[in-house]
């Protein structure tokens, strides 16, 4: 089945269907219409899959997908134009340009936590760049997956844009095919499998993975604002099930009590005294992840570090916002990506020590610092490798289409959003244009010392040498 | 076992050096690049001697195609280093108002460069230039199939650059495998697609991003509407004038019309005789075949039944000296080995078609090449070629030279590779572009926070539609009612 799909898309692509700007614009407009007309259905699917609050469904998925479409629509004509670049003296006379061409037939494998956005957003890039695309939505968000399978054919050209639903067997079958690019959003274990499959066909990939996104909190801050922004980036993003949600906090031993106190107050304001009943928190996606998270806080050496929250409701798959203080570094909670509503706070003597601690772990997708201290800010930006970073807020950088969104090291490779999405799915073909004039016979065998001298001069940028070369020195019989 | 120890040891040392921050300052990077410049200038004779030993490479080619390109690559990096290292401001956007946004380039860390045998000096140093410019520590594994250059690099680099951060590890398959088993922050490989797959499989285990500069069959389409003499010279220079065809961007095969082929052949023969004389096996201006392995491979391509009788020029070979003369073949079968594999040698098949447009389908029936060439004055044909042929790069009315333009990305697509380098692209290949968003504690939009209400949603929708009133409401802390 995977083979047939690829065959059909290759034929559509070879027929040139996806190349014209009009076709690409029409697909993007179709997606915008789909988002506008089916907003209620999309919100309902996200609620089914994640109990996602409708505010988050709108703000974090629907509106971002729509603005991404619009940004691409606005940019397409410009992005598709060849980019002229300076010509080199060594190839004088010539003109040079870089042409963006589609890679061909691409595969987008999406994730379960932002199942609408993380499917549409890469597909937007694939379409804008002129590719045919297969979307494999996450089976762990089945309502959204089904919705895509139903809606996309109604709104876009399904000879070139297809949805293939399924789990591990279907994904494996897709990965065995030859694609011109694979775009995967998810975790590091599956990413290695995707990359190994891609290696067999020399298929380039973009991997949007995760990691433990640290939040360093200095004492020199507006604490109330900082804490609100941390909370909204953590529990206000799918209840912590987001690749860029704060994973853990680092602060000084001295400042920790104040910070914890402030967090508790904000959490109570946001979610009330009984957060398990709050309609403003996503549930945990399924029982597998519920068990995983419950085990993290039940671990010996961890359970007694809970300073707030910890309540769970297995039937409803809910876990309340939970704060922990100084959990040992070698616990599961502190080694793997949490991806849930648990927020450990680690204390250090001096705030500067936090940088070494962050760097002792693998490079995260995002890193955050709350501080007014300019030197600490500079140190943080210069010395903490991460996909992206924010100073004095969390998560927002993904809303800026001029910033590349992607990881580094274990948090991924490649990036997208805005024009980076277009570039991600394009090949930048170098084109050098010459006429038949400007023959430099010094270039041709038989090689002589005189010719070499002229060439040396030419290469070193000497205009005289260039002129001599073009005048056909050294003179030879034709 | 020893190979593993050497590989692990090299990587550990490089990691320690990188962690100490040695490679970060612009001054360090510039010093290394100047060291490489000095090395290319002071050691020109030794480098040419090594290339002669490894490939019988003519001195002119050693200078023009390897040494001078390294020199200009270093100079370009030195000139642009400060600009590349500066963060680039980007528009901040209304949604995160007030904020500033920028993209900063940071080194990936510790990188591995695996080089090729055909341009063993250039293809080792050029990627290393990018790695250094971007602030990485780097391990270089030169090709063992060019042993004189490999030894020379192992000897010279420690004398000219900081060997705590730039190391040469020599060796063959066991040593390369041991290196590939380590965790690197990037692997840059130049070579063939079979080993490219192996490199990428190793990289997959550590989620290491790669650049693969591979090859393919670079086609040359020759229209009848050309200056034939100039075209023939330029094709010949790109083929036999580039390491006797052993170059990833050498013309691999020609496509022309049945009616034009005789003229083209005639012109090529004349040019070949002018370039290399009546006895090309004796010409000092042709590289030899690198080793007997490749010599036998090329001989087998020519000797295949249904192919050997298509030789229309050349075909002479000298096994003792590993020389094969420039050889033209006319209309070999498309399913012969010479038309299925990358030739990488001095054999040039010419395939004829009825109409020149048929060349497109033929090219597209093969995997995407590293370079594609068209000789024609016909603008329409050129436009169609550019639109319908996908290749790493392309040139109209010449061959090979696009790699000398540092403003053009040099790299493949599909089977011919992934990623690109040269000029700024070398720096980018070895850097991570980190997004940085800066906010202050002002500009709090309470509408953003739970508990979520209709009023807040309304304000935020307004902000997203860039409605100024909504923005003001958001910032002055309205929540639009409970």
TrEMBL record, chain A:
Gene Ontology CC terms, in alphabetical order:
cytoplasm
The keyword NAD is assigned to this record: yes
Q: Which SUPFAM superfamilies match?
A: ALDH-like
| Signal peptide feature range | none
A GO MF label: aldehyde dehydrogenase (NAD+) activity
Ranges for domain Aldehyde dehydrogenase: 3-431
Q: Which reactions are catalysed by this chain? A: an aldehyde + NAD(+) + H2O = a carboxylate + NADH + 2 H(+)
Question: Which family does the record assign?
Answer: Belongs to the aldehyde dehydrogenase family.
Protein name, per record: Aldehyde dehydrogenase
Q: Which organism is it from?
A: Digitaria exilis
UniProtKB/TrEMBL annotation, chain B:
GO cellular component, as recorded: cytoplasm
Q: Which domain of life is it from?
A: Eukaryota
Q: Which residues form the signal peptide?
A: none
Please list the reactions this protein catalyses.
an aldehyde + NAD(+) + H2O = a carboxylate + NADH + 2 H(+)
Biological process terms from the Gene Ontology for this record are: aldehyde metabolic process; response to abscisic acid
Boundaries of every Aldehyde dehydrogenase domain copy: 12-436
- Keywords attached to this entry: NAD, Oxidoreductase
The UniProt entry annotates the active site at 213, 248
* MF-aspect GO terms: aldehyde dehydrogenase (NAD+) activity
Q: Does the keyword Plastid apply?
A: no
Entry keyword annotation includes tRNA-binding:
no
Family, according to the entry, reads as follows: Belongs to the aldehyde dehydrogenase family.
Q: What is this protein called?
A: Aldehyde dehydrogenase
Protein source organism: Digitaria exilis
């Amino acid at each position: 089945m995977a083979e047939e799909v690829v065959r059909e898309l290759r034929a559509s692509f070879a027929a040139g269907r996806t190349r014209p700007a009009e076709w690409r614009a029409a697909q993007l407009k179709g997606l915008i219409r789909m988002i506008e007309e089916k907003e209620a259905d999309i919100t309902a699917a996200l609620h089914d899959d994640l109990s996602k609050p409708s505010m988050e469904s709108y703000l974090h998925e629907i509106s971002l997908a729509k603005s991404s479409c619009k940004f691409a629509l606005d940019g397409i004509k410009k992005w598709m134009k060849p980019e002229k670049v300076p010509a080199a003296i060594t190839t004088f006379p010539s003109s040079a340009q870089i042409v963006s061409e589609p890679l061909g037939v691409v595969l987008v494998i999406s994730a379960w936590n932002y199942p609408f956005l993380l499917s549409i957003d890469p597909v937007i890039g694939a379409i804008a760049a002129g590719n045919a695309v297969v979307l494999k939505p996450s089976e762990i968000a089945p309502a959204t997956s089904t919705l895509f399978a139903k809606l996309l054919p109604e709104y876009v050209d399904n000879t070139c844009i297809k949805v293939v639903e399924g789990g591990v067997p279907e994904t494996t079958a897709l990965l065995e095919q030859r694609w011109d690019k694979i775009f995967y959003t998810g975790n590091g274990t599956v990413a290695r499998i995707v990359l190994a499959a891609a290696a067999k066909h020399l298929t380039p990939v973009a991997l949007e993975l995760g990691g433990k996104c640290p939040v360093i909190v200095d004492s020199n801050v507006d604490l109330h604002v900082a804490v609100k922004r941390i909370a909204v980036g953590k529990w206000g993003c799918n209840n912590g099930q987001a690749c860029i949600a704060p994973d853990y906090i680092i602060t000084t031993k001295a400042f920790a009590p104040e910070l914890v106190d402030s967090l508790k107050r904000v959490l109570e304001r946001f979610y009330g005294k009984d957060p398990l009943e709050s309609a403003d928190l996503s549930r945990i996606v399924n029982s597998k992840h519920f068990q995983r998270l419950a085990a993290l806080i039940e671990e010996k050496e961890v359970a007694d570090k809970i300073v707030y929250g910890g309540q769970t409701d297995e039937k409803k798959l809910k876990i309340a916002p939970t704060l922990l203080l100084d959990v040992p570094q070698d616990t599961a909670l502190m080694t793997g990506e949490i991806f849930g509503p648990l927020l450990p706070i680690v204390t250090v003597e001096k705030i500067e020590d936090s940088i070494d601690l962050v760097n002792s772990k693998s490079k995260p997708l995002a890193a955050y610092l709350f501080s007014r201290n300019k030197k600490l800010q500079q140190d943080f930006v210069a010395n903490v490798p991460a996909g992206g970073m924010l100073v004095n807020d969390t998560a927002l950088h993904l809303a800026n289409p001029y910033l590349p969104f992607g990881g580094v090291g274990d948090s991924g490779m490649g990036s997208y959003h805005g024009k980076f999405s277009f570039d991600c799915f394009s090949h930048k073909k170098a084109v050098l244009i010459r006429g038949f004039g400007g023959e430099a016979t010094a270039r041709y065998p038989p090689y002589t010392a005189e010719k070499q001298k002229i060439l040396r001069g030419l290469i070193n940028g000497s205009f005289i040498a260039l002129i001599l070369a073009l005048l056909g020195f050294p003179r030879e019989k034709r | 076992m020893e190979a593993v120890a050497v590989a692990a040891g090299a990587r550990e040392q490089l990691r320690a050096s990188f962690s100490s921050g040695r490679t970060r300052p612009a001054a360090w990077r510039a010093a290394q690049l100047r060291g490489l410049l000095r090395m290319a200038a002071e050691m020109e004779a030794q480098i040419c001697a090594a290339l002669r030993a490894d490939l019988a490479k003519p001195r002119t080619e050693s200078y023009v195609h390897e040494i001078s390109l390294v020199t200009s690559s270093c100079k370009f990096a030195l000139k642009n280093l400060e600009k590349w290292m500066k963060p680039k401001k980007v528009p901040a956007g209304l949604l995160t108002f007030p904020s500033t946004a920028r993209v900063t380039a940071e080194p990936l860390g510790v990188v591995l460069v695996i080089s090729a045998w055909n341009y063993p000096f250039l293809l080792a140093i050029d990627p290393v230039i990018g790695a250094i410019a971007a602030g990485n520590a780097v391990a270089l594994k030169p090709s063992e199939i060019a042993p004189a250059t490999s030894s020379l690099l192992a000897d010279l680099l420690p004398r000219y650059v900081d060997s705590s951060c730039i190391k040469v590890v020599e060796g063959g398959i066991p040593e390369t495998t041991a290196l590939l088993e380590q965790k690197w922050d990037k692997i840059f490989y130049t070579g063939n697609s079979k080993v490219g797959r192996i490199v990428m499989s190793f990289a997959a285990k550590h989620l290491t991003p790669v650049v693969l500069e591979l090859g393919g069959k670079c086609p040359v389409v020759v229209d009848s509407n050309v200056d034939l003499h100039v075209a023939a010279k330029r094709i010949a220079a790109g083929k036999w004038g580039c390491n006797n065809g052993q170059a990833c961007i050498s013309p691999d095969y020609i496509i022309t019309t049945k009616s034009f082929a005789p003229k083209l052949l005639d012109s090529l023969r004349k040019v070949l005789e002018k370039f290399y004389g009546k006895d090309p096996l004796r010409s000092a201006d042709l590289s030899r075949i690198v080793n007997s392995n490749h010599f036998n491979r090329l001989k087998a391509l020519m000797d295949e039944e249904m192919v050997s009788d298509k030789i229309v020029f050349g075909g002479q070979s000298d096994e003792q000296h590993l020389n094969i003369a420039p050889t033209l073949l006319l209309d070999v079968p498309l399913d012969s080995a010479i038309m299925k594999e990358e030739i990488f040698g001095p054999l040039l098949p010419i395939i004829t078609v009825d109409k020149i447009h048929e060349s497109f389908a033929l090219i597209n029936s093969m995997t995407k090449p590293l370079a594609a060439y068209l000789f024609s004055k016909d603008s329409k044909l050129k436009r169609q070629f550019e639109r319908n042929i996908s290749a790493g790069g392309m040139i109209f009315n010449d061959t090979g030279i696009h790699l000398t333009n540092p403003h053009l990305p040099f790299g493949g697509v599909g089977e011919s590779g992934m990623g690109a380098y040269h000029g700024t692209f070398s720096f980018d290949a070895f850097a991570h572009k980190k997004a940085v968003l800066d906010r202050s504690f002002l500009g709090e939009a309470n509408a953003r926070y739970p508990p979520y209400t209709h009023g807040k949603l309304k304000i935020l929708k307004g902000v997203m539609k860039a409605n100024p009133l909504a923005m003001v409401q958001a910032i002055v802390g309205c929540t639009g009612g409970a």
